[in-house]
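Practice record 12: protein with zinc ion.
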Amino acid sequence: MSESAYRLPRTVVPSHYALEITPNLVAATFAGTVDIEVALAEATDTVTLHALDLTITLAKVSQGDGQAAGQGAVTTQTAEVTDDDETETVTLRLANQLSPGTATLHLAWTGEISDGLVGFYRSTYEAADGTTATLAATQFEAPHARRAFPCFDEPDMKASFGVSLVTDDDHLAISNSAEIGRVPVDGGLVRVSFADTMVMSTYLVAWVVGPLEATEPHLVGTTPVRVVHQPGQAHLTAFALEAAEHALEYFEDYYGIAYPGDKLDLVALPDFAFGAMENLGCVTFREVLLLIDPSRATRAEQRRLAAVVNHELAHMWFGDLVTMAWWGGLWLNEAFATFMEMRCTDHFRPEWEVWAEFGLERSAAFTVDALSTTRPIEFEVHTPADAEGMFDVLTYEKGASVLRMLEQFLGEETFRDGIRRYLADHAYANTVTHDLWSALESTSDAPVGHIMDAWILRGGHPALNVARSGDTLALTQRRAVPLGADEAEARTWPIPARLSVGTPDGRLVLDQLVEADSTMTVPSDARWVMGNASGNGFWRTHHDGELMDNLLAHLGELEPIERYLVVDDTWADLLAGRVEVSRVVEVCEAMTDDRHPAVWRRLGGVFGGLRRLIANDHLDQFQAWVRSVSFVALEDAARLAHDGDAAAQDLYAVLFGIAGVTGADPATQQAARELLAADPAKVDANLLASATGVVAADASAAEHRDLMVRWRAADNPQEEVRFLYALVDTPSREDFEATLDLVTNEVRTQNAPYVLMRALSHPTLGAIAWRYLIDRWGDITERFPTNALPRMIEGIRWLTDDAVADPDAERGAPQFLARHPLGSGDQLVQQSLELQAVHRALVERSRPSLGGLIAQRVPGGA
Ligand SMILES: [Zn+2]
């Protein structure tokens, strides 16, 4: 099938849809009608538009004779309909040609409300009386509107939408815009009509119908804001409302444009394939990302929820008002919304230090982008399956990182002014990436397009080598790749370099656009040089021997994100074969005085990585070493957390988890059991969550049963997810296998792939999860949301046993996944396989030396 076969011709273009949907929630069916006003560029006797899994029951086209409205004659003809499953289209064939000008398509159809979490789909919850309540909602990105109504389902075929829903009077019915009418119709139902939307893309259309409740509208400026939720959850809505109200004001100010909708509903859905979806005025979320009791949730859970609300609201302008012309430009929507989500969250709660915490997400992007199976951020998309593969860390996190890098290079005000110009110039229209660079070039004097093309249109990122001789720094760059990856062609990036320098008089930042190998001058009394000031650059830094020693000697003068990067870049250097594992061990030991949660979160990840490298007969010594590196910080954090300091509570929880899980510290494990038995209202939520993980990783059969009871009884979404994940952390093979059965039967399909991903990542039982998965491959890939399947496969990255990772093993991942390709997201699968091979090589390389190294460092060792 040629690429263009998946695109509609531009000879017929829609301008308005009058759409009516009548769902039957009991029978899981629906009926629809639409009048689509279109403009014809030329005479034609066929009209092709998208429709998938719909039974078209009526298709007519009417056209006036060119006279002014109400004066001429209108001719209506019935069309013959043929469908094409491959291109997901229907074609209307007419006996008489339509003339150039305007026409109206009249269509009616029926369809099934699906259980697949896309298109128009069904979601359920257990009502207070124990019965199952059913609602139906839409998820149209990307691209699934065609599963609910025949439409021109491409992002640049924008139109306005007048939606009506025919439903039970006692059901909540909402769509993108304000309700403007409600009239009784046959069968005891009502027709609820909504105002015409602004001109927008089909993937942003949304409606939700069912037994749900909404909070009282709260006015932000002129915009009424509500949270829509299951009955009985109103007490979990205040935090999201506070975040949304802040975000609306923040973005109206930043963008310099009023909110483009007429109301804003944030809708918590019990079943949801993604995290959230930016439908104009009707933003949908999975419950755990909208409903929260802050007194029972961790700081990380609150931060994540606020970030997702901010992300979706950033899209109301960037994405909804101005939209990418085609899915290949999706990165711009998502990267920008991710970047703005952090700006907005930083403004909402400065004490959360979101830019430091972003380090972990950037690390995930670095890891994938170093592989030979990476891709450019902007990537060609032909088919719907291609589009689905775009929702990954390269689009979101790498994209956001390079925008942050550009913002810091241009200056925050210059960057914002360019964004304002871009939005004002392209409101209600579509853009390509270069439109943004042009706008930013008009407000700055930097060669934005030249710099950004290198970062956006090519995969990979540079490793910047920094060496010092006197007051000269030599900067050399090459592509960052793990050892054993295909030797990438020699090439360089235009790096908007910012280096921080420590002198006796304080800290300096040096700026320079580094096009190729280059030099910089530093003050001769500089004590240290950090090759990525404030961690805003998307490059790895390798500090030559002495520079690294200087950094480790002056860690207290670095920003938290810079200390984070000292750890993170060293781990990358280990994967790249540029340092031995002994250097990683030294860096960990140099961090003992650190008291920042982001730094310790990364150290926790490094300990987890080393845990994969250590031979079993050195495991006890390794655990003792982890305890020795983290104990002083743990005791300090315990004392500070006791005084009620929120940042210290977060830090204490991180360290408590390191000591109890990776360090297997008996005292911490005992403390965790006591915390779990205590009145939850009296325990800090961060610590309670961490204690749950500690108990789970050492759980007896009785404790595993207790965690299962707590999961089923959880009365808020965060605890439900926490206890669910804890179930697969069990050290017992029997309980692990029982949990896998639960995951494929009882767990909601929106969560199951992520629990399986965690099961595959289990430090000792992951290979059992792999065998379980491939034995049920057909059932699992059929039932779980397709977008989550490649994420599930990410769990194999550390499964380096021969049985799973050996390319010759018939039931191993390389062979099995080659024989059983996923429908979409194949590139993500290839990345997981490559990373598995990289880790396998690392285990072979480092395992022999690590045991002896650790043994020398603990009492009673070698
Ligand atoms: Zn988004």
